[in-house]
Amino acid sequence: MATQWFCKTREGVKGPLTAVELKEKVRTGEVSGVTLVRKDDSKWFPAKEVVGLFEAAFGDDPEKMKKAHETELPGDY
Fold first, then answer.
1. What predicted TM-score, i.e. pTM, was given to this entire model?
2. Backbone phi, then psi, for 28, in 5-degree steps?
3. Hey, what's the torsion of the CAs at 58, 49, 72, 64, to 10 degrees?
């Protein structure tokens, strides 16, 4: 079974998401580096700890990657 991802914001939990959907949420700004995520039924942790997520989302634009990685969104905890 494929890994399922979940995002936790003040609006609630979003998911399950595929890795591709999570990457798209990073790319569109819905998920930042401080947004809490979890994989399957693991503990919550900041999205910036997902190895390769921000590189995959912004590999062609290091400045956008850095900004998204460090930005706190209004919906983040």
1. 0.80
2. -85, -5
3. -10
pLDDT digits (tens, 9 = 90+) for 29-68: 899 999 999 999 999 999 999 999 988 998 876 666 566 6
At residue 48, the pLDDT reads 92
Q: How many CB atoms lie within 10 A of CB 64?
A: 16
pLDDT digits (tens, 9 = 90+) for 12-31: 999 999 999 999 999 998 99
Cα angle for residues 7, 61, 37 (degrees, 5° grid)? 10
Residues 6+ apart with CB under 8 A from 32: 26, 47, 68, 69, 70, 71, 72, 73, 76
Q: What is the CA radius of gyration of the chain?
A: 11
- Cβ burial of 55 (10 Å; 0-12, 13-18, 19+) is exposed
Give Cα 26 to chain centroid, integer Å: 5
